[in-house]
Amino acid sequence: MAPVSPQHPAILREHAILVRDGRIVHEGGPREPGAWTYAWLRPGLGRTPLYIGATGLALGERVQLHLESAEPHVGRVRHEHPEALAGEVIVRGFLLAPGTDRKAVARALEAILRGKEPSGDPIAVAIAHAAAVRLAP
Fold first, then answer.
1. What is the rounded distance in angstroms from the CA atom of residue 28 to the CA atom of residue 32?
2. Taking a C-beta distance cutoff of 8 angstroms, is the pair 15, 48 a contact?
3. Using CA atoms, how far apart are residues 46 and 34, in angstroms rounded to an integer?
């Protein structure tokens, strides 16, 4: 397979949010809603994700909901991955071009980061490969 470029025209922006012990300690960056695909990563574990998601909300707002919502379908990280609430976690997000299927990109990114062959829409798979290269340690 040919090397994959970290550049893809559908990735408009990248953003990182630092979470420590279940609280956002550094957000900075864009606060606009849009088509975001994101990965929760533990520093020192490379690209192995704790969680992969997609949202139409501002990335910081979605991370906050993951951490604080009592509703399991909203606070998925809090309820399904409590290990992400201890120590440091970095949430790396990719703002995608309007019209991009953020959920398809998230599914493909999760497959790639878990060492599986991604399937589905070839455009989403290409975007996910570019995002995965950007997540390389």
1. 12
2. no
3. 27
Distance, CA of 80 to CA of 56 (rounded, Å): 21
Dig out the tokens for 137 from the structure. Answer: 């340690």
Q: pLDDT, tens digit, for every residue of 17-61?
A: 999 999 999 887 667 889 999 999 998 877 789 999 999 999 999
Paired strand residues for 92: 16, 39
Here the tokens at position 93 are 């997000």
Q: What are phi and psi of 109, to 5 degrees?
A: -65, -40
111 and 117 Cβ atoms separated by less than 8 Å: yes
Confidence of residue 4 (pLDDT cuts 50, 70, 90): low
Helix (H, G, I), strand (E, B) or coil at 68: helix
Query: 3-state DSSP helix/strand/coil percent for the chain, to nearest 5?
Result: 30, 25, 40
